[in-house]
Amino acid sequence: MADMDTTVTVIDACGMAKVPALLLSRPGKGKSSLIRGLAAAQTIPCEVVLGSQYEPAEIGGLPYLDPNGSGVQREAPAWAKRLVEAGAGIVFLDELTTVPESVQGPMLTVVLDRVVGDLQLPDAVRVVAGANPPDQAAGGYDLAPPMANRFCHISYEPTVDDWLHGMSTRWRTLPLSRAVVASTERMSATVSAVMGFIHHRPDLLDKFPQSPEERGRAYPSERSWDMLARALAYVRADDQPAIQTLAMGLVGEGAGMEFVQWLQHADLPDPEAVTADPSLVDWAHERPDRVWAVLNGVVTLAAERGTVEAFRKAWKPLGAASDAGVKDFAAAAARTLATFRPANARIPAEMRKFEALLKSAGLLSEDAA
């Protein structure tokens, strides 16, 4: 269970990463009050959508024939139009476990693609949902796997102190978020960490649950690991409660806890520091999963920056790893890095160590230095 501070932080981090968040608790725990309070604190609108009150066509947009000859269009509901007009806000999909699967289907595009009818919601609009356990919801339904796998599931259990504070302020004052603005360096580090773990445990990349109950919760998939890599970039590297909540909320308790434990023991170096000084890593004696993670962090950082200088510098750690005998991992990273070569970038000396490989892959066609 996440405390109030961590809950606010994770919702904020998910919002900045464009990852939908789902608050889960027993009835009467104040989920709606919390979300409305977050919106009020940011002075943005909060549109509450009760999917159980909608027909499938209303969520997806009611079809109509455009009199101007553009064919069939889909009319978005009023709440979506208000958010588009405001340019920011929160879509709060309340009582999600009371929504039948026939309505959950059209809600999928709202949750992940942020499309309602023919309207694209602005980037500053965040998607948050609230739900009780299906057996404690009115006419409860398990979440369909495609819906469940689109959310970061946050088990919400406010303490007595949280409730007392909320009552005293009439829920107008909430803890400050610990989320941070993601830097290029932090993003490359979180991407490389997730990739390193999956290299270590490839069987956890996509593990569809066996029981219907588990399919309505967080579970590992290519999508949820990608969302985890993005969301982690918006929390500090030392914020263990937020990291654990994100990991368990996106890829499930088992895979999430294993990832957190691996991350703590991996103690991965900063990709920027390794790019500047490849000797920081003992390439010949390092664990394979760490080598894989570090090299991919270096490549991701160069790709994110997209400059000629970043491209040229990134080849130094790859060359050092190859010279130390870690040729397979270095070659895999080289293939990826070569695809991000800026048009005006000349070939650095370290890149020539992979010349035959890159030519055979069609990624290198010139010999000019």
From TrEMBL:
Domain ATPase dynein-related AAA: 22-151
One matching Pfam family: AAA_5
InterPro entries: ATPase_dyneun-rel_AAA (IPR011704), P-loop_NTPase (IPR027417)
UniProt superkingdom: Bacteria
GO function term, MF aspect, one: ATP hydrolysis activity
Name of the protein in question: ATPase AAA
Species whose genome carries this gene: Mycolicibacterium obuense
